Amino acid sequence: MGIEEIYSYFPFKLFGLSRGDLNDLVEAEFAAEVELCRANPDMVRQYLDMKRAGHRVGFISDTYWDSGRLARLLRACRPGLVWDFLYASCDHGSGKSETLFATYLAEQGIDPGASFHVGDNEKADIKGAKRHGIHPRYYPQATAQLASKFQRETALFELLCTGAPSRLDHGARTLRRMVAGHNAERSQAFHLGLTVLGPVMTAFDAYLTRRCGEIAGPGRKVSLGFLGRDGFLSHRIRQELHDTTSAYLEINRRVSLIASADTMQPLVDLLSKVFKIDAPTFHDMMKIMPPKVAAFFAAFPGGIASGEELAEALPGLIDPAEIVALAAGLRARLLAYLRRTIPGFDDCTDLVLADLGYSGSVQKALRRIFDLEGIEIRLHGAYLMSLDDAFDDLTAEDSAAGFISDLVVTPHVKRMLIRNVALLEQACCSAAGSVRDYDDGAVLREINPRPPEQMALAAEIQAGALTFAASADDVARDYGLDPYAAPDVAANWCAATLARLLLLPDDDELALLGTLKHDVNLGTHALAPLLDQQFVRNQITARGLSAACTAAAPPMWLAGSFAGLSPSYNYLYVLFGANRLPADVFEERPSRPVQVGLFRAGGDATLEAVTVHRTGLGELRVRIPLSRGMAITMIALPLAKFAAEGLLHGVTVQRGDDVRDAAESQDVVGIAADGLIWAGVQWNGGHYRADTEDGCLLIPVTAVTQEIAVYSIAITPLGADPK
Hints:
Layout: H1 3-7, H2 22-36, H3 41-52, E1 58-61, H4 67-77, E2 85-88, H5 89-92, H6 100-108, E3 116-119, H7 122-131, E4 135-138, H8 144-160, H9 172-181, H10 188-215, E5 222-227, H11 232-242, E6 247-249, H12 253-259, H13 265-271, E7 276-278, H14 279-286, H15 291-298, E8 304-306, H16 307-313, H17 320-341, E9 350-355, H18 361-372, E10 378-385, E11 399-404, H19 411-419, H20 422-428, E12 435-439, E13 442-445, H21 452-479, H22 487-503, H23 507-513, E14 517-519, E15 527-529, H24 533-543, H25 545-549, H26 558-565, H27 567-577, H28 583-586, E16 589-600, E17 605-614, E18 620-627, E19 632-637, H29 639-642, E20 645-656, H30 659-664, E21 669-670, E22 677-679, E23 681-684, E24 687-690, E25 696-700, E26 708-717
Parallel strand pairs: 1-2, 3-4, 5-6, 5-9, 9-10, 10-11
Antiparallel strand pairs: 7-8, 12-13, 14-15, 16-17, 16-19, 17-18, 18-26, 19-25, 20-21, 20-24, 20-26, 22-25, 23-24
Helix pairs in contact: 8-22, 9-10, 9-21, 10-11, 10-21, 10-22, 11-21, 12-17, 12-18, 13-16, 24-26, 26-27
């Protein structure tokens, strides 16, 4: 089919056109094709080699462009190109999978065994050539895995990057395909760095160059520093591409906040974000252990308190003067380190801090440190992702900006990305332990609690990213690509590329990355799991889909945990994060009442009515609240009455001081299947079927340690709906 025939089906009237405009539409598309097409240097080299060897060389293409336009397109890509034959499928009414090769052989009078065909379509080019006795060479444009990633990226681009066209990326994906094609035989982790992380971080490096250029000016001496440990890969790429004097600065939130403390408040803010903490960890962080603090920890089970509890009590536990003295000492050591690490620090007028993001806590702490010490260096944050509303309190002289800013994706989407950013942090992180202090300008580090195999995996991912960065400029030049010329386009596509990895991973990535653990890095040696799909399943059972989508860490990679359940649950999570998941469709609604049996230790039993809810995914939810005073030891759920056959997804329990606290608690405990009793019900793995009208699921009740316990059951019913 030719282009004119294709456009004959165009809805002309819908766009205020007539059939007389058909040729204008054809020429407009052809002009776009000429502008966007590039000659593949590998193919050009092979073509010229064949011509120099005296072989007859030409082109055979499945295309809706006729041979005249195809010739114009080829010469636009490679001026002066000549050929011995040219075949376009639309001229002959047949493609390479049909009779076009036969036409070529007959008209050219060529022995098939002496003919050689290069193509990128396994069916049309390779199988089609073989069927006619022609020797084929397969030159794939992209692997199936990379093509699948591109498809997911396009879907996320259209979902998350509102107001931008998804079709044009200034050659970014072409660049990724070509670089990947030159590094085919490498590990899966290397390819993740090569095809996903490398392109994002190389575009970020181009952004940093622009950012430094915007800050520079007459009378200004600008220095660039990459904040460790997450800025490690960015710094390596900077060194690879530019060999500049940029510095790698081992400063973390904990050290900078303590050093900036001239009151108790920065320390309170820091500790309030710690999940759990004990006395040894507090001493490692603060280097002091006042008696009141020791007594505070001793009052908690196992000596472990929440950071929020400690932050609330801290003003009454420590003399503020101790904090001020502690901060002053650390501040002096930190400044000695900066002077040793940043060339010409005392002559610097503007310091650009490059980091993954997000709210500039280190930048703000450094500002307080510089102000306390009378240092007038202006600070400028340059972040891969920025929570832009967090920078309203910067001084007029300082600034902060994000490559992926609120102009690229909404703050709602940004928070979903940052909720899952631990995966990116682990991939970009240094293998060294986190900084804890400085000594005469040298870094003193914590131990690195991450296992060696995890650091080896991160190193392999970084090797792939560095390979992309090192070859991107040369490959882009060969193909006439300029993917970073338009900053807004580059930012949008990097947001989609990064979102695809963090929010919509494929099965291979889950298997590769699912065992990683996140270094909490707040003066502890704790490692938090990235993935925990059972956690998500329990949250859905007990609290519903929307509540599961807003669950606090851990697990650190919530999107990956949803993906571990199923791709559909994963996509629902993404829709929720994009504010595209209507609660009245996917949340539960009351369906019918059912009488459950509640048994006490002495054998007494009562029937209580509870409501069966149905979710938007067709699952049934039953929630049964129990108080400590009821002394219930067994729950009998009459499955035969409302779901005689089905799939049991789980039974969970939550506890609290009242029903509301228990129902909203994220501390959901799953009850093992072997702890349930099936009475008059056949049970086979997740599937069950009631044999009698009295078939029940018996749920043993553990001792109620708080006032209220809420038991939740999630079922997908199968078969006929009982009446």
